[in-house]
TrEMBL record:
InterPro entries cross-referenced by the UniProt entry: MeTrfase_CN4_CS, SAM-dependent_MTases_sf
Designated name of the protein: site-specific DNA-methyltransferase (cytosine-N(4)-specific)
Keyword Cytoplasm: no
GO terms under biological process: DNA restriction-modification system; methylation
Similarity comment: family membership: Belongs to the N(4)/N(6)-methyltransferase family. N(4) subfamily.
Keyword S-adenosyl-L-methionine (UniProt): yes
Reactions that this protein is recorded to catalyse: a 2'-deoxycytidine in DNA + S-adenosyl-L-methionine = an N(4)-methyl-2'-deoxycytidine in DNA + S-adenosyl-L-homocysteine + H(+)
The protein's Enzyme Commission number: 2.1.1.113
């Protein structure tokens, strides 16, 4: 059983500020630190570097908190009904007690966010530094990102002044935040930015000129973006109506000699990409934080299970 939020927009803004008080100044400071680190020695930036996150979150934090996890709730739903979610079983209560003991400085809202991330799944931003390293390796002229998400791959392109970035996303709630983000990026980057807020399947890719595809598509219904429910209810629908047609269309129109790069789970690589694109020519493993969670008295199994995550790369002959 799940309960949902009835917060107003102003209440959501207030809650977001309780979690992270991002300002234009902190965002631009973060951008400056990222820029200096890239200029100094991009390849020596630590794999788990958070550089660029504060810049991105300044624009998209509300939508991050609005995004539903695979359990069907977003953080606002969780916090609005915290009396239920934070006392639903003994393991949750035990976890909260542990957090309070080890981090007594945390506010109730921040404790709630930690519980939500651990038990319901946090929403992650693709690291701009990871994107920048890949662009620096492959030297693209124009990047196509057909599920652009929270801006990590855009920021990575902008920090390197890649000639052009084309971003597509079906979450219309991101249009205004991205507009504001791009106003800042255009002042400090030479990258031409072309953003389209529409269903990626409805784009005519033959009209676009790109030599690199790099994206991190949704993993089935693990995350539900914006105010709409997912149009695909089963994994079979995702496979046949989204993954296969979008991978085929974007691959077919990629320039010869270009690179096709997907940050996807191994199951999608094996089930969809191998038959469609063949074996990837290169795999880049992404570093991840490991964590151990207490056992839960619920039906949620394999919580915190370790797994490897890769960027799969194909080169078009």
């Amino acid at each position: 059983m799940y309960f949902f939020s009835e917060y107003s927009d102003s209440e959501k803004i207030d809650i977001a500020k309780q979690l992270k008080e991002h300002t234009e100044e902190t965002a631009l400071t973060d951008f400056g630190k990222l820029q200096k680190a890239v200029e100094k020695d991009l390849n020596n930036i630590k794999p788990l570097s958070p550089l660029g996150f504060k810049f991105l979150e300044y624009f998209v934090h509300i939508e991050l908190l609005n995004t539903k996890t695979r359990y069907g709730i977003c953080f606002f739903d969780f916090w609005y009904n915290r009396d239920f979610y934070m006392s639903r079983d003994a393991s949750t209560v035990k976890l909260i007690d542990s957090i309070k003991k080890n981090k007594p400085y945390l506010t109730e809202t921040k404790i709630g966010k930690q519980v939500f991330n651990l038990y319901y799944g946090g929403i992650s931003i693709f690291r701009p530094t990871t994107a920048a390293k890949l662009y620096n390796q492959l030297k693209p002229q124009c990047i196509l990102d057909f599920t652009m998400g929270w801006g990590g791959r855009l920021l990575g392109a902008s920090i390197l002044n890649v000639s052009k970035y084309i971003g597509i996303d079906s979450n219309a709630n991101l249009e205004e935040p991205y507009k504001k983000m791009c106003e800042h990026l255009k002042k400090v980057s030479a990258t031409e930015i072309d953003l389209r807020f529409q269903d990626a399947l409805n784009v005519d890719y033959s009209s676009l000129d790109y030599d690199m595809v790099f994206t991190s598509p949704p993993y089935y219904n693990k995350e539900i973006y914006g105010s709409k429910d997912s149009p695909y209810k089963t994994k079979e629908e995702w496979d046949e109506k989204f993954y296969k047609p979008i991978f085929r269309a974007t691959w077919d129109n990629l320039k010869k000699g270009g690179h096709y790069c997907l940050n996807i789970p191994q199951c999608i690589y094996e089930k969809i990409c191998l038959p469609l694109l063949g074996e990837a020519s290169e795999l880049i493993e992404l570093k991840k934080y490991s964590r151990i969670l207490p056992k839960r008295e619920t039906k949620q199994f394999n919580v915190g299970q370790k797994y490897k995550e890769f960027i799969y790369i194909w080169k078009k002959a």
